[in-house]
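tool_call: predict_structure(chain=1)
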Amino acid sequence: MNPREPRRPTDTDPSPDQPRATRGSREADPREAAREAAGAARVLVRQLGLLAAAGFRGAGRRGRNAGRAVGPFFAGMSARSRRSPHETSPATMSYPVAPGRSWYGRLRQKPLLAIGLAVVALPTLVLSVVVLEAFATLPPLGGVVPEGGQRAITVEADDGRPFATRGAYRGEKLTAPDLPPHLAQAITAIEDRRFYSHWGIDLRGLARAVWRNATGGGVREGGSTITQQYARLTSLTQEKTLRRKIQEALLALRVESTMSKQEILLGYLNTAYFGAGAYGVDAAARRYFGHGAKALTLPESAMLAGLVRAPSQLAPTRNFGGAKERADLVLQAMVETAAITQPQADKARSEKLTLRTPPETPPGANYFIDMVAGDAKRLAGEVGDVTLRTTLNIDLQSLAQATLARKLDAEGDKKKVGQGALIAMSKDGAILAMVGGRDYEDSQFNRATQAKRQAGSLFKLFVYLAAYERGYTPETVLVDRPTQIGEWEPQNSNNRFRGALPLRSAFALSVNTIAAQLGDEIGIPSVVEAARRLGVASELPNVPSLALGSADVTLQEMTRAYAGVLTGAPPVEPFSIHTIRGSQPQPLYLHEAKQSAVSLSRDVQTMMLDSMEAVVESGTGKAARLPGIPIGGKTGTSQDYRDAWFVGLTPDMVIGVWVGNDDNAPMKGVTGGDIPARIFHDFVQRAQGVLKGRKRPAPSAAKAERVPASEISSAPVSPDVRGVAEVIDTGTLTIRGRSVKLLGVAGEGGALARQLARYLRRREVACAPDPAAVAMRCRIDGDDLASLILTAGGARATEDAPQDLLEAEDQARAERAGLWSRER
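tool_result:
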């Protein structure tokens, strides 16, 4: 059938003259009505599109040319419009028209009007659909709990210095009596000046924000009201979509109708994020200034009010300058709103703001912090924000991290050593320093407490201890000879036999055959029982090879076991927390020393300590010797050089060191008496100053500081070389044609050398020879040049560098400055 031919009426068709209410014998079907409405909407959209197309095609033409340009569609429509209503069936009639007065005919003569109507109608239709969809899916008020993560933990060192934070600070909920007037004035002045007069949406404020941002060269003011922000924080996600913005506005209207202005403001201040893990203004006040929101001063209130716009970027702990500039803008906004006077603002700007917040966490301390965070949850539960007074000595921690890193950087690649760990504890078990790996950012796995590795000869402690308890003595003689126990034939590391040896010497030289014989004579169960008494909890198989350390154990287990011999009262319980404090004065937890019910025989303890001293004096641990300090210990090396250990004792500490590879790959001939013993030596040597009370600066706060002349005892008063220096590398200069090697600096070339050259350009350098070395110590403008270079990460310190230069390198490592940067 020709689609243009009108369909003939049938008996079932309603008469066009019949009233609508009486047409048909059945009531209208709701689903059919919905389908008709959907069809009508599609027709409307299609017709609007055709109108727009017709307008574009007819633009610029007049009269009949415009009509012809519209095309056959309008021609057909015009023809149909001239038909009698009786000639057009309802099936083909889209809408009624008056003969000779078709609206599309008029639009055909005015194409620009058609375009305008289409441009306005289409976006309006789309927006209406979006608004209806946003309204239909509107969430309930308070349906979203702002992200906060774990509760806030402030970590203090053993001397009370805070050095790290973890988690999200919540603080106390601010109530109306606690709200400082200047805080409310500051937040409304910078965020929503018409807060007390608008009804949730401020069109005037939005226009003002657009104007100020456009004329100010950047985003200086937002358009959302405080009510909208509160609705978003408590009821919506943070997605940036038109739908979310519409829902935010609708919820703001609902909030205004159900809450007072003060309730809205308090809710916003208690919910907003202020950076550095602080949610709510009370948490932010405690995080940044060390007191609650009730005690906020005017400049402190201005700084906090300025943070909510960009908390991550402006957090004072990261960007104090940016936070201070923003606070000044807040004060000026308060002047403009007559909240304060200009003199009050000027006075507030001049007041010094002191942050009472921990510095950035030293990278190496994160292994320890992970451990104490778990301990705090176990000891005190989830009870809100807490402060932990830990056992960590910040200065020893910095030394431990730097000493391990320095050795692995110098020899790791050559000897195929990829990882290491160190743990230092006092005799009572307090963990003073812990390094769980080479780089926490690369791997958070704690090799000091989590990694189980074969102990090798380090395990012989338990064999000899059990033997001494059975009546053996260090003078008892056994024969180093080929030995077979069942099908097992232990071998010495050098595949040689020394013959008859006293047990003291056999322990010092780590003779495998004698340890295997002892284990067989006293029984492996006795060895296991001795290990359990000293605190080893790992699985220990009842096999003959256990005497040579075939079991997998952790560094912490072995270190505590050796500490048990030092104290004579095993097991020593390692601990990392002295106290846990919450918001109340009464501590949530207080460590109490436990008296051991077990003690070693005084004679057995003395014999065991004597044997360990022999290891350092004349045995496999000679690299750990230090003049004037009594030291004992034991080396350990597993099969194929996969693990190397040294656990050493001083009168004050027990230090355990392990090196190896995470994939259990063999090292290149590294034994416990090699890298681990030398790490122990360097750490203990440099730790003596810390233990005597000399404090080192925290790594995160380190700066290139002026070195007093009194600390450079080797520098003569009269310089030997003076003049403008040329840079060969960061450790070598040329002054007046003479080559000058800087004491303690292993020079670097390339970009670092060019940076040093720019720093020294046309500036006089004065150098003097060091009496104990061929190198020189140089000064520039009163500062020690080597210290400046090392602190900036411009070079590595040499192995024989003086103590102050080693500390300068430690600071650069901790701050990842210069060559220690991860980007290099």
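agent: The first helix runs from residue 30 to 58. Proceeding to next step.
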